Amino acid sequence: MSMKIEDYALIGDCHTAALVGKNGSIDWLCWPDFASSACFASILGDERNGYWSIRPQGRKWKSSRQYIPHTLILETTFETGQGAVRVIDFMPTRDENSDVVRIVEGVRGEVDMRMEMAIRCDYGQTIPWVVRTEEGVRAVGGPNLAFLRTSEETHGEDMKTMSNFTVRRGQRAWFTLTYGKSHLGDPPATEPEEALRRTKKFWVDWTRKNRCDGKYADIIERSLITLKALTYMPTGGVVAAPTTSLPEALGGPRNWDYRYCWLRDATFTLLALMSGGYYDEARAWQDWLLRALAGSPDQVQIMYGIHGERLLIEWEADWLPGYENSKPVRIGNAAAKQLQLDIYGEVMDAFYHAETGVRSLREEDFQIWKALIEHLRTAWMLPDEGIWETRGGPEHFTYSKVMAWVAFDRAIQLAEHHNLDVPMEAWKQTRDEIHEEVCRNGFDKRKNSFVQSYETRRLDAALLLIPLVGFLPVDDPRVIGTVDAVQKYLMKDGLVLRYDTSKGSDGLPPGEGAFLACSFWLVSALHAIGRQREAKKLFERLLKLCNDVGLLAEEYDPKHKRQVGNFPQAFSHITLLVSALHMEGDELSDRRQGWHSKQGKQTIREQIARHKAHGGRVRKEKRSQTKSRRVRAR
Question: Which of 217, 373, 388, 413 is the most buried (most CB within 10 A)?
Answer without folding.
Answer: 373
